[in-house]
Automatic annotation (TrEMBL):
The keyword Translocase applies. The lineage of its organism: Bacteria, Pseudomonadati, Thermodesulfobacteriota, Thermodesulfobacteria, Thermodesulfobacteriales. PANTHER family: CALCIUM-TRANSPORTING ATPASE. It comes from the Bacteria. This is Cation-transporting P-type ATPase N-terminal domain-containing protein. It comes from Thermodesulfatator autotrophicus. Pfam families: Cation_ATPase (PF13246), Cation_ATPase_C (PF00689), Cation_ATPase_N (PF00690), E1-E2_ATPase (PF00122). Residues 2-52 form the Cation-transporting P-type ATPase N-terminal domain.
Length: 863
């Protein structure tokens, strides 16, 4: 370990150089890279020159405060995204001090021994020291589409071209088949891949589709606001106001109308929401996936480990026409093999002995430092063998044919150390084992297989599957000589079945129920037997009854045309014994039917289906690096309930962006309506430039940000999925913005008129309207917490950040209005208590017509 640390310090992290990030200073200065802000700064400078120093300083301070707020938003978002990037970083398995350790790929150093298994993305350049049927896809490096067979025994001259270095494996390539060990010879930018990547530095990170759409909206709003502000300022000059006053006022109005914090709030909402997903064990690799999550209509999920606990335990063994029971739970090696309730000696039952022996040795799981490492199914078989007293160290593996999802079996050749005899051991699905078996064992007899005997085995397998057991078949052959690779899986002797159970996760039933309420269909796609899958599916509520009409096997799928299968997809929710190619076909057909599909996967062959799905979801524990690379989301706990939590979080993020838009644009538009209506009515200037900028600061700041992190609405997972083509500005949202803004104007304009006529003081009336706007913002903020539910149908005070921001708004408004010190700087005067009461009552009363109109709009517009 010490040597690894020393080499890490010498060679640095095993990662490619990244483009330089923006410094905090640049990030802060970028907040002012806005045409309107620049014009405002020029206007403040002109005010300073003509002697209006107080107004100029106040404007500059407000601009600075806005800049600080924007900087904090973006800085927090960047930090959150950087943390997520770290969480989604690839991992590698290395051998250090004789132990297999899973470490972040960036910590691999030259001299490490890298463990290579099917599905791994190789973390560094290695010289192979061991290879077993090792094939590697080197297309990303050499462009060669055919996987390269590797051979550790080869010794090649140094000048051998890159594509021909068959004793090497390179960073960025993928293990397709077999396994191997490699000595790390280069890391990071010193790898062959790193040398190429060095030429591609400086590529900017792509914005999400949502950010791009909102940037366009922001530009249009900016242009529109400038036009409105210019027209309004021209009216003011015609009415006798000075051109400098109107120039400042017009620019301030444009600044207030444009939601310049929109990109920052969107980024912050995405980043914070994604951070919340990470806390719920869903690591988002690509931000666009967050937007798609809210539109998900179908979740296609694996069974083992996702819907179930992934704690396989062998419970029953069928061998030699006898059904044995296995005691013990989980991965504990204490337990017994029972027949008719009594312990048995496995050595008196050769068929039972061979069934357990194959499960023990045809197995890549291992026990290391008291901890089992490997696939849960293989661990269960290893534990069963250890319970029976078998000793894996008595045998040496000399050859293997790795598991293949198309063959559905794995084979090894072992040599017994005591007598030197060879054993061929094969495990897999019943169909695949029957394909390569010519005989079967019954007690001490080896008998030729008959179709009747095979049919009997199918029936026994079905009976075990009815009990929700996952069934595997086992076969063997003794030989005096080492068989060739092509002879391994031939003329085998079938010896028995092992049935294991992986109980459903208790939280999944509730998650499936939540999916149904949210209009999301759950489809189970598994390699397990149909009856086992159906039993689990019924238990979890995926299907309503244990009827064969709800399940299809791979063989049945292959008999249907695409159109026929589309029809079947309307009824069938469980697909059993499928291969990755079937997954891909199902995804494509679902998408053709207009569904937004989330697909789970863990193997290298799942990558095409994960990429084809709208949202690819890889398993974080059992998933290969290839599956993780092809996915949009990684489940840190491999749990289906986490997928549903991620969908809920995705919906929440999109919901919150719309809440923010509803609040901000309703309020900003109402300012424009009041100011223009005041001009048209011939009233005095309703608000000064400083008033407008202050309102912009306190409303665009804390409350808008608080709505960006609002808790999920109570009805969130009871709504149907959002149509994927639906943008932010739906008809319902536009209608709500229009109604809310007009309502605010109708409430506040008469107040200004009355205050002006009763006091005959323009500054007093301006202060009343200024305060009215801030208090009205409080009401609008709470109304905006849902565009679907009325305020009395949920807890309006559930968002603590909104409560605190509202408190800040009110206290700061009281201070700047009632404190003489601020009056001269912000062009305000103290107003008596009765006006505070009137304005507060108006803000409270605003809730009633706003909520009634919300109900009407909800009925009129579905979206």
């Amino acid at each position: 370990m010490k040597e690894a640390k020393k080499r890490f310090e010498i060679y640095g992290p095993n990662e490619l150089e990244e483009s330089p990030k923006k410094s905090p200073l640049k990030l802060f200065l970028a907040q002012f890279a806005n045409v309107l802000i620049f014009i405002l700064l020029v206007a403040a400078g002109i005010s300073l020159l003509v002697g209006d120093k107080i107004e100029a300083v106040v404007i500059l301070l407000i601009i600075l405060a806005c800049g600080i707020l924007g900087f904090l938003q973006e800085w927090k978002a960047d930090k959150a995204l950087a943390a997520l990037k770290e969480m989604a970083a690839p991992e590698a398995v290395v051998v250090r001090e004789g132990k297999h350790l899973k470490i972040p790929a960036r910590e691999v150093v030259p001299g490490d021994i890298l463990v290579l298994t099917a599905g791994d993305k190789i973390a560094a350049d290695v010289r192979l020291v061991e290879s077993v049927n090792l094939k590697i896809d080197e297309a990303p490096l050499t462009g060669e589409s055919i996987p390269v067979t590797k051979d550790a025994s080869l010794i090649l001259p140094p000048e051998t071209p890159l594509p021909d270095r068959r004793n090497m494996a390179f960073a960025g390539t993928t293990v397709i088949n077999g396994r191997g060990l490699g000595l790390v010879v280069a890391t990071g930018k010193a790898t062959e891949f790193g040398k190429i990547a060095h030429m591609l530095k400086g590529v900017e990170e792509e914005k999400t589709p949502l950010e791009k759409r909102l940037a366009v909206i922001g530009r249009w709003l900016g242009v529109l606001s400038l036009i409105v502000a210019a027209v309004a300022a021209a009216f003011g000059i015609m009415r006798g106001h000075s051109w400098l006053e109107m120039f400042l006022w017009g620019v301030s109005l444009a600044v207030a109308a444009v939601p310049e914090s929109l990109p920052a709030v969107v980024t912050a909402a995405l980043a914070i929401g994604v951070s919340r997903m990470a806390k719920r064990r869903a690591i988002v690799k690509r931000l666009p996936a967050v937007e798609t999550l809210g539109s998900t209509t179908v979740i296609c999920t694996d069974k083992t480990g996702t819907l179930t606990k992934n704690e396989m335990t062998v419970k029953k063994i069928w061998a030699g026409d006898k059904l044995f029971e296995v005691t013990g739970a989980g991965y504990e090696t204490q337990g017994q093999i029972l027949y008719q309730g009594k312990p048995v000696d496995i050595f008196h039952h050769p068929d039972l002995y061979h069934t357990l022996l194959v499960g023990l040795l045809c197995n890549d799981a291992r026990l290391e430092d008291g901890k089992f490492i490997g696939d849960p199914t293989e661990i269960a078989l290893l534990v069963a063998g250890l319970k029976a007293g078998l000793k894996p160290e008595a045998f040496e593996r000399v050859a293997e044919v790795p598991f293949d999802s198309d063959r559905k079996r794995m084979s090894v050749v072992v040599r017994e150390r005591a007598n030197g005899r060879y054993l061929v051991l094969t495990k897999g699905s019943l169909e695949s084992i029957l394909d390569v078996s010519s005989h079967y064992q019954k007690d001490n007899q080896i008998l030729p297989f008959t179709s009747k005997e095979k049919q009997k085995l199918v029936q026994i397998t079905d009976n075990l599957a009815d009990e929700a057991l996952r069934v595997m078949a086992f076969a063997f052959r003794e030989t005096e000589h080492m068989p060739s690779q092509t002879e391994i899986e031939k003329d085998l002797i079938f010896c028995g079945l092992q049935g294991m159970i992986d109980p459903p996760r208790p939280e999944v039933r509730e998650a499936v129920k939540k999916c149904k309420e949210a209009g999301i269909r759950v489809i189970m796609i598994t390699g397990d037997y149909a009856k086992t899958a159906l039993a689990i599916g019924y238990d979890l509520g995926i299907v309503s009854e244990r009827s064969s009409g709800f399940v299809l096997t791979a063989k049945e799928v292959e008999t249907f045309s695409d159109q026929e299968l589309k029809e079947k997809l309307k009824e069938v929710s469980i697909f059993a014994r499928v291969s990755p190619s079937h997954k891909l076909r199902l995804v494509k057909l679902l998408k053709e039917e207009g569904h937004v599909v989330a697909m789970t996967g863990d193997g290298v062959n799942d990558a095409p289906a994960l990429k084809a799905a709208d949202i690819g979801i890889a398993m974080g524990i059992t998933g290969t690096q290839v599956a993780k690379e092809a996915s949009d989301i990684i489940l840190a706990d491999d749990n289906f309930a986490t997928i549903v939590a991620a969908v809920e979080e995705g919906r929440t993020i999109f919901d919150n962006i719309k809440k923010y838009m509803l609040f901000l644009l309703s309020f900003n538009l109402s300012e424009i309506l009041v100011l223009i209506a005041g001009f048209l009515k011939g009233l005095a200037l309703p608000l000064t430039a400083i008033h407008i900028l202050w309102i912009n600061l306190v409303t665009n700041g804390p409350p808008a940000l608080a709505l960006g992190v609002d808790p999920p609405s109570p009805d969130l997972m009871k709504r149907p999925p959002r149509p994927p083509e639906e943008g932010v500005f739906t008809r319902r949202l536009v209608a709500l913005i229009t109604v809310f803004s007009v309502l605010i104007a109708l409430f506040l304009l008469p107040v200004f008129d009355y205050a002006l006529s009763s006091s005959q003081s323009v500054i007093f009336a301006q202060t009343v309207l200024f305060t009215g706007f801030v208090l009205m913002a409080v009401a609008v903020a709470y109304v905006s917490r849902s565009e679907y539910l009325n305020i009395w149908k949920f807890n309006p005070f559930a968002n603590k950040w909104l409560n605190l921001s509202v408190l800040f708004m009110v206290i700061s408004q009281v201070v700047i209005v009632q404190c003489p010190f601020f009056n001269k700087y912000l062009h305000t005067v103290s107003i008596p208590g009765k006006w505070w009461f009137i304005l507060s009552a108006l803000a409270l009363f605003y809730l009633f017509p706003a909520e009634l109109l919300k109900s009407l709009i909800t009925r009129l517009f579905r979206y």
